[in-house]
Amino acid sequence: MDIELRQKIEDGFEHFAHLIYCNHWKVLFLVFILVIGLASQLSRLTMDTSTEGFLHADDPAMTAYDRFRNQFGRDGVLVVAVTAADVFDLEFLARLKQLHEELRDNVPYLDDITSLINARNTRGEASTLIVEDLLEQWPEDAHALAAVKQRAISNPLYRDLLLSGDTTTTVIVIKTDVYSSIGVETEEVMDGFDDVFEGDMEVASVEREFITDAENNELVDAVHRIAERYNGPDFQVRIGGGPEVMYMLKQTMQTNMTRFIRLALATIAVALFIMFRRISGVVLPLLVVILSLVSTLSVMAIAGIAFKLPTQILPSFLMAVGVGASVHVLAIFFSHLQQGNGKEESIVYAMRHSGLAIVMTSLTTAAGLASFAGAEVAPISDLGILASSGVLISLFFTILLLPALLSVIPLKAKRSVSAGRRHERMDRMAIGIANFATSRYKLVLALSSIILVIGILGAMQVRFSHEPYKWMPESMSVRQAGDFLDQKMGGASMVEVIVDTGKENGLYNPKIIKGLERLKHEVEQIKDGPLIIGKTLSVVDIIKETNRALNENRQAFYTVPDNHALIAQEFLLFENSGSDDLEDFVDSQFSKARFTIKMPWTDSIYLDRLSVDLEKRFHQQLGHDVEITVTGINALLGRTMTATIYSMTRSYVIAVVVITLMMILLMGDLRMGLISMIPNLIPIILTVGVMGWLDLPMDLFTILIGSIAIGLAVDDTIHFMYNFRRYYGETGDVADAVRHTLLTSGRAMLVTSIVLCIGFCIYMFSILTNLFNFGLLTGFSIAMALLADFFLAPALMTLIYKLDAAAVKE
Amino acid sequence: MRYMLLLCMTLMTTVLPLQAADLTARQIMERADDRDDGDNGVSDMVMTLIDKNGNKRARKIRNYTKDKGKDKQRIMFFMMPADVKDTGFLTYDYDEYSKDDDQWLYLPALGKSKRIASSDKSGSFMGSDFNYSDMTSKNLDAYDFRILNEKKVRGAKTWMIEAIPKTKEEIEETGYTKSVLFVRQDNYMIVRGVLWVNEGGRIKYMDSQKIELIDGIWFATKRTMTTKKNKKTQHKTELNFYNVKFNQALDQEMFSLRRLEKGL
Which residues contact A376 (CB under 8 A, 6 or more apart)? Predict the structure, then answer.
């Protein structure tokens, strides 16, 4: 940027500051009206902790999943596990029945409930086919009980689904509604007829919303309330499964968010007080930050964007990032005031001095964040859009509100000896740093290079991971229940494979059914690192059960018949046996089959690979004229992982390119712009390196660090370079210019970096473990960025100008 | 004179309303239950299953029914689709309430018949929205009936009767927690019903869309049952009857295991 243009911009800021000073009441009035208007929308904010929420609604994986749940219902079931010495005890079973019925009658949005009480028990005895619920005939004595136990143990379908291998644990499976009940008025039920006899059925004309997060919570709440009353030493209740994880994540998110906001407020207030030693120095920036936050959240509410797991950091993040601009303006303002200048003059001076710099720093920060906007992971793209808007909103409030507020309140220079002494100490430190960095620049550069190499080596070892379930600490009940289910019942998270034959009654084909049977054995053997398969379920299990029952329960007949007609007739028999279980496994046309894979929670990095592997295996066994779709919660998690890696790579590239361009523009010089990026990139490479060396995984949160840190790190560089060039222009001496820069802007750089650093360390107080890493690492990279600007940037400048001077001499 | 007037008024207020609603809900239900629904009947039934996306699947079944005393016997053979042709079901529906129905099935591909033991009537009938309790008569003693209203259904006056099961067992067995039945006032046919399913918040709508007088018997030749949840249709079944005849010469042999295994 050439000097003339910069002059013009600075003149503009001066003029603008005058204007605000003269019209401060009008400005304040308008700003407050605006904020109040926006804030009225805040009540519309919602939360969404679902696995689906991680992906955009139009993501191919989501459309496949929507098709799946439209056909077969929600795959994430709520699991109530009950443990005792032995499940087959009359007293225990009576209690289980009570619990089952109470849940069935009182839990909202419940679609289906299955337990040992109503489990299908189809069996053959001589020439009779018995179709009943396992406990339809209530056992009255030990003999009858033993018979029930025998039947339950010998039913392979119960194993790990309803009953643990050692019969100490049984499970009540609650399938929840697929669709939301929102918008269903409680009008006369009798009206249901009107569209019934009006010709044919309306073909799914109304698009329904899927069950909402709020409804999920209502449901889980009800289950908790009921189940907890039954909990006891002889009837240990544990609640797990997808809906429960969603529910608990939401609760921790609420606690986390309030905690983060409080800590951010406290940190910022303390840092501001230490820096300015004035009430106004604390209150004014906080006011700017809070109003920006309220406005940003209101925009979020108006846009209908829900808080999701990654966006929970947004409020505290915006506060820590937004306060920086105010700090820079106030630092110049107070020091000018302190030098005996008037209030108006100091405001105008501060705005002239810092206006362009804070606009540029805000723009670079916003650019770093906006690089997430196109992310395929929905909440990361939300974060990109909202955080970058928030930074700009906060810039708007800083340059509009801060001067107006300063105009209104009475402020005078302070006479304080201790302040002077403190300043002296800080100035001595700044001079020391400046002298060291410029005189020992070779040492600084050499050390930086070594650190960079170590960083790169570490960065090459970084591994990716996405395991939302493990984010919850082991002390949480849902985590304990989940671990218990994983160990005892082979897990409760699902992958679903849909086999579409494309033909009505295509599933009568013995080739397909036989193939599915082979796949059952094959899939149950899959192992990939920590990934193991618990159990698979499909229409094959129903056919085998029916076939055995039709053949006097002889185990030899626990197979799939070869005969096309017999398969068709066994299906018909099953349909006629009064069970509606078939609709969980096939579509009404018998053209599609669902193959459910139940497994323990595992790292998503393996899940995407599993999806690919499954598709291959299914095609191998069933041929290529069937369509295979792999979906379900675990497939979504896998997809989220790959989308995260892909989006991150793109976002890093965008952030680096855009910010480099901005730096070149600001420097008005290609070479200087590029050089100024060195102190920005090293902290990030170093941070990724630390992750590699310490084996901290790149997950949905730590992956954000790069683009966030580069947008923030560059702020200090801008302030440094901007001032350095100004002073170098005045003195023509590098060491002198560095000293001057650190003496004027250095303090503000230090304070804003400390605020940011602590602001991110706040996340270390999170209940969710992954946020701990995120906070620690971002804090680390901010600290490194400050060090780079204090040491490496001056050293680089010294080297460059020495080389230039040498070139000129030659 | 004054006495006469008083008498008239008393008559008008007591006797006349009694004529309009001279039956209790229970009495109406008894008459619906006792209504002549034909004997020695033959019909072809096309059952169309329609899923929530509007996909249809049709089955054609030949039906024979016979009253044996107060019990009802029925034999059904599948005619279509080809895969299940000749699959048969034989059912004895006993009037005595405590006695479970007897049912046998024959799968031609298996080549043998099996007795099916099941006491649960809440399960689906042939994979349709109708369940077994919809297809058999109710045990009136197990319910409390109440007249809710009178309504016209397709031009015919009906009583709207609420039926609440007295016991949990009845709920478990039929699968309904409550129902509202529309009984025609002229012929005591139940032409509509709203049925509250005991699980999953579903409501089923039964509708006799076409009623014909065949051989002196009122018979619904087109019936639908629609399962809805939150007012959204989940599934629907349409039954259409053709070639309905009553009073045919059907002997007891028709309703035997041998006949079942022989096929049509």
Answer: A55, A56, A59, A643, A644, A646, A647
d(CA B249, nearest CA chain A) in Å:
29
Q: Are residues A110 and A197 in the same domain?
A: yes
pLDDT of A456:
94
Is B166 contained in some domain? yes
How many folded domains does chain A comprise? 2
* Beta carbons of B84 and A569 less than 8 Å apart: yes
Closest CB to B224: pick one of A181, A196, A563.
A196
Q: Is B10 inside a domain boundary?
A: no
Identify the bridge partners of residue A210 per DSSP, sorted by sequence position: A179
Mean pLDDT of B162-168: 89
Residue B23's nearest CA partner among B159, B156, B137, B187 is B159
The answer to whether residues A207 and A71 belong to one domain is yes
Does residue A318 lie in a domain region?
no
pLDDT tens readout for residues A595-646: 999 888 888 888 888 999 999 999 999 888 899 999 988 888 888 888 888 8
Q: In Å, what is the CA distance from B170 to each residue of A135, A782, B98, B119, B177?
A: 17, 70, 12, 12, 9
CB atoms A184 and B114 under 8 Å: no
- DSSP one-letter string for A515-565: HHHHHHHHHHT-EETTEE--EEE-HHHHHHHHHHHHTTT-GGG-S--S-HH
Q: CA separation (Å) from B82 to A504, A562, B58, B79?
A: 13, 17, 11, 7
Q: Please check whether residues A75 and A176 belong to one and the same domain.
A: yes
Q: Is residue B18 part of a domain?
A: no
**Which residue range(s) make up the domain with B112?**
24-262
Contact A572 B123 (CB under 8 A): no
Longest dimension (CA), chain A: 109
Same domain, A22 and A73: no
Q: Domain of A286?
A: 1-37+278-313+324-394
Q: Are A8 and A99 part of one and the same domain?
A: no
In a domain, A246, yes or no: yes
Confidence of residue A58 (pLDDT cuts 50, 70, 90): confident
* Domain presence at residue A224: yes
Instruction: Find the CATH number of the domain harbouring B99.
Output: 2.50.20.10
A261: number of Cβ within 10 Å: 16
Counting the structural domains of chain B, the total is 1
Q: Is residue A354 included in any domain, yes or no?
A: yes
- Residue for token pair 């004595």: A141
Q: What count of CB pairs under 8 Å joins A to B?
A: 156
Whole-angstrom Cα distance, residue A27 to residue A404?
7
List chain B residues with CB under 8 Å of A181.
230
ipTM score of the complex? 0.83
- A201 confidence band (pLDDT: 50, 70, 90): very low
Query: How close is the nearest chain A Cα to the Cα of B209, in Å?
Result: 7
Q: Considering A394, A413, A440, which residue would you say is the last residue of a domain? A: A394
Instruction: Give the type of residue at A259.
Output: R
Name every chain A residue with its beta carbon within 8 A of the beta carbon of B114.
124, 127-129, 550
Q: What pLDDT digit, counting tens, does each position of A534-585 carry?
A: 889 899 988 898 888 888 888 888 988 888 888 888 888 888 776 677 888 8
Q: Are residues A182 and A223 in the same domain?
A: yes
Is B230 inside a domain boundary? yes
Per-residue pLDDT tens over the stretch A688-701: 999 999 998 888 88
Chain A residues in contact with B120 by the CB 8 A cut-off are 131-133, 136, 578
In this predicted structure, what is the pLDDT of residue A417? 58
Q: Under an 8 A CB cutoff, do B114 and A190 touch?
A: no
Q: Please report which helix (H) or strand (E) contains residue A16, including its range.
A: helix A3-22
- Find the helix or strand (DSSP H, E) in which B71 lies: strand B71-80
Residue of B nearest to A505 (CA): B83
Task: Give the chain B residue whose CA is nearest to the CA of A182.
Answer: B230
Residue A805 sits at the vertex; the CA angle it makes with A799 and A810, to the nearest 5 degrees, is 125
Contacts of A196 in chain B (CB under 8 A): 205, 207, 224, 226, 236
